[in-house]
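Practice problem: Methylmalonyl Co-A mutase-associated GTPase MeaB
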Amino acid sequence: MPSSARSAKEPLRFRGGSLQKPSSSDAPRSRLLGDPGVRVKNREAWVRKILEGDVRSASRLLTLVENQDPTAIPLLKTLFRHTGNANLIGITGPAGAGKSTLINQLITALRKEKRSVGVLAVDPTSPFSGGAILGDRLRMHPHFLDREVFIRSLATRGAWGGISPALFNAIHILDAMGKERILIETVGVGQDEVEIADLADVVVLVLSPGMGDEVQLMKAGLLEIGDILVVNKGDLKESQQLYYQLKEMIPDRPILKIAAEKGEGLPALLSEIGKQLSKIETHGAKRKSFIMEELRTLLREEIGQTVLQASFDERAVEAVLLRKRDPYRLIQSWLKRRG
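Answer key — structure tokens:
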């Protein structure tokens, strides 16, 4: 680690009830500044390879991103100016609805259109390793050798709650690689998944017969996030009932029947996605929402690191312990000095 960087265990100095400004030699280094560990020449070569669509170079950077390695930041900063071109398509719905099967078919259809595709499968976070448990989706294995398809699993949560910055960074990396369509799959219908799906330009909500009645769906807040509702396993009799229930409940949004396993109904779904994307390109409100959420996420993580590094000297702690001063004024003075 460079000498200018502070170890996460080193405290900020708080003496006599006020925060002392650290000297330039020992000030805590923001992770957003990055670690200059990668030489400029190597960094330029690395960025160039990613812009050329090199899978190995992108995978290496994604690993740094997931590990919160500060050497990733200078690379991400350079790549950012090459982003903003990809369309983000969220695929969400209850477990077992057929999301991975649908994504596999969508990849095939998009490749027939000669489009480059990225897939980010957002998985639960392991409480032990912090990594994604499920790994890359095996159902998508026919596309693993296609250089125009990039598939990656990511963990969902940030260290301080909310969406992980790794998701935003992964989107930027795939975008810089030239992926025209980035499919974001979520594993379930919890609050995390709703937040993540809502980042997309278009959200496809996948449902199938037997996933629960309409009241339960409404309670989950699930129906509100879908720009397009898809009833999978549309070749089954039971799907007709669900289809008409949804038509009655949500008359103002497109509802389609498909059979993802057989590839039936895909042309109509792709056509509807295209219509929705044209609205995004005209209005752009969702793109602004994406940027706002990314900024909030980065700020949350940065503030979290600052709090983790904060410490108070023994006299301040002792004064609070003996009730000679209260913790509220102590924290207020700390915040005031932080500006």
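Discussion: Residues 84-293 form a domain with the Rossmann fold fold (CATH 3.40.50.300). Students who identified this feature from the tokens alone can consider the problem solved.
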